[in-house]
Every structure is written in C-alpha cells, then in structure tokens.
User: Fold PLP-dependent transferase from Winogradskyella marina.
Amino acid sequence: MIIDLRSDTVTKPSKGMLDAMQSAHVGDDVFREDPTVNQLEERLAKMFGKQKALFFPSGSMANQVAIKLHTNPGEQVICDKYAHIYNYEVGGVAFHSGASCKLIDGDRGMFTAEQVKASINPTDYYYSQASLVEVENTTNKGGGACWDFQEIENINKICKTNTLGFHLDGARLWNALVAKNETTLQYGGVFDTISVCLSKGLGCPVGSVLIGDEEIMKKSLSLRKLFGGNMRQVGYLAAAGLYALDHNIERLAEDHKRAKEIGEVLTKLSTIKKVEPIETNIVIFELNDDVDEAQFLSKLKEKNIHIIGMGSNKLRMVTHLDYTEQMHEKLLGELKSI
Ligand SMILES: *Cc1c(COP(=O)(O)O)cnc(C)c1O
Assistant:
C-alpha cells in the first residue's frame, strides 16, 4: 500500500466517474457543439450566478487568460507574495500579459483591504497602474487557509471604488466552501472572474473552469485558442466534472478531518518544530533545525509514505479522495513511531 500525500492531484477517476465519462455525449467543442461541455459550463455559470463559463485544460491557463482579460501591458496585478499566479505559473503574468505583480506581504497568503489600498500606486504618469486584484482561496502556499468572507467583501469595495478587476483563483475554493459553510453564489456575487479546479479535491483527471459575466468573458474563447487550449471531443472530461460536482464536494469534509488528525499527531513529535494551522486538506509543518529534511523524507519513503518538501525544512502533506481510512490509520501509526 502506497500512501501518496504529495498533492490532491494524484487521485485517479473512480469507477462511477469512469462510467460517466464513457457514456458521455460528445461533439466538436471548437464548433461549441459538445453537449456535455456546454452542460458543464452552463451548470457552473449558474452555480456562481454568472452568465458564462469556459472549460480549460489547466488552472494555470484559466488564471492566465483571466489576467489577460483584466489587464493591459505595463499594468499591475495586486496579489499576495504567496500567490500561485506569481510563484508557480512560470512568470506567466509577465510573459502572457506584459503585466507585473505588486506583492502584498500577507498572512498565510491572505491580506486585508487596507493592504490593497496601500498597494495601489498613485496616478502620476511614471507609475505602473493597477488594473486587477487577485485572491486565492484556499491558499496553496499558505497551507490551505480560508479567507474571511467579510474581508473579501471589503476588498471588493476597494476594487469598485478604484475600477479594478477582481479575480479569484479558486483552485481549492470547494474546500473553502465546505470548511466555512459558504456558497458559490456568495463568491459569484463579489468576484468578476473565478477559476475553479476539477482535478484537485474533486478527483477529475483534468480540467478547470473560468467563470464570469458576458462582458468580461467576451475575449475568453479567442484567448483560450491563442494560448493553445482549444479542445475537441472534450465532453468525456466534462462528464467527469459533472460527476464530481454531484458526488465529490461534500465529502471534502473527510479530507479536512483527516488532515486535522494528522496535524494533532505531528504536533506531538519531538522531530517537529511547528505545525501550521490546519483549516482544510493541506498540512504544512516544519522540522527541527537538527533534523535533516532529505533523511526525514527518505525514511517516510521506506515506509511507502510519499510527501513533499517545500524548502527551508518545511514539508507538506495533502489529503484527498484516494487517501482511505485504512491508509490514514497506517499513516498515524507510522508517524507516532518516528
Ligand atoms: C493547482 C493550482 C492552480 C492550477 O494549477 P494547474 O496545475 O495549472 O491546473 C492554480 N492555483 C492554485 C492555488 C493551485 O493550487
């Protein structure tokens, strides 16, 4: 039994999901004739109270197209220093949109409306002008932390006053909704564009969706083509998405519970300096200075437990759909014996 907690992207489609994929009705999505893709897009748009949604092969592409929709070259995207769009999308903000990131020194990937206000450059001609604020919920590098929705509303007010776009990287928004008992409509009500991922907590093999109203999404289809993201009979993948929306959202609470239980065991280990607060399915912890990270990782590997290092003696575990109760019990036992 291999326990793979490197990411919630390691899941494989379940029997039910594969059946749904196999029986999907498909067509050429480049002609916008794939009924299953259309169904998934309509369903997600409606869930968020928006007019339009577009299926993407990856979350990075959905985010980068969103950034391009909101910005012109030379402009600025205000985001946290931990943001996925800044750290893990190959400098795409500069490459695709010719824009720069104004980084906020937030807390676990989250920041305040006051900090946004302070990050907007003056209008003097020699400054780069902000055109977009980007929020990530849950935060990836921040250890699956969930935003306070009130603060998001406060930031939205700043955006509206300053005519800034407001984009949500919701790769793990599903986890936040379940953990905080929030709704998709709440989020659709404040953000101009939202990207959600189907292949993380929801267990699909591929797929992200960008959601927004007609006006802002007008160029999304041609930008997806420009980015090389047009797909053909992709309803087989959209069917997995529809299945996941029906079956795999509420169960995220199990992943969260197991992550918290792992955290409780880690807190008691003498080899571990600190476990970051656990709100959803991500566990980030720091080893004591005298513990060698590579050695710690390979010791776990010998026991068929795979996790990843994040640098500076910090390690990460992510619980997911394919992490079973049996694996959980084994993991807790092995950790206690370290
Ligand atoms: C995974 C992830 C993405 C998108 O990643 P892809 O691998 O391109 O699908 C975007 N934002 C966050 C916060 C993520 O965790």
